Amino acid sequence: MRERWAAGRLTADVAQELMRDSYRNYIRRHTPRFRALFDHLLGDHAPLVIHCTAGKDRTGVACALVLAALDVDDEIILGDYLLTNQYFRRDAAAHPDLPQDVLETIGTVQASFLAAALDTVREEYGDLQAYLREGLGIDEIARTALQRRYLTA
User: What is the pLDDT of residues 35-78, one digit of tens each?
Assistant: First the structure.
């Protein structure tokens, strides 16, 4: 990203596409890490903290996957993900050389970012249920165990 800024080519639109590319790569490159998360959840290794560099992108995808495995409605998952914009503030002083609109783009989450990850799931696995099963090892038995452990009536 900094290379594009140095070359005068980093705009908010370019930053949005770079963010979408990052989210696509979370599915392509981090599925083993997401699978390890589910192994911890199923093993009841509590307490458990989910984090990443900024605490919003890989963490947001991981939490969306957990909610999907719990059969939470897609609209609720998206709403939960977008709550990040109410509670997360990136330290603008950490990147004084970047334009404000670029900082706002990389310091927030957008529905299109999560959609890019989910589109990649569909491209590579067919649908989210297949990804949960094949990519993350969440079969019906595991799913039922997660629901019993993490949902209340």
Answer: 999 999 999 777 788 888 878 999 999 999 999 999 999 999 99
Total domain count, the chain: 1
| Residue 4, in any domain of the structure | no
Q: Could you tell me what percentage of the chain is helix, strand and coil, using 3-state DSSP and rounding each to the nearest 5?
A: 70, 0, 30
Verify whether residue 52 is a known catalytic residue.
yes
Least confident range from 23-32, 40-49, 86-95, 118-127: namely 86-95
pTM metric for this prediction: 0.90
Q: Which of 12, 14, 52, 63 is catalytic?
A: 52
CATH number at residue 37: 3.90.190.10
Q: Decide if 7 is inside a domain.
A: no
What's the CA gap between 92 and 96, in Å, rounded? 6
Tell me the residue range of the domain where 28 lies. Answer: 12-150
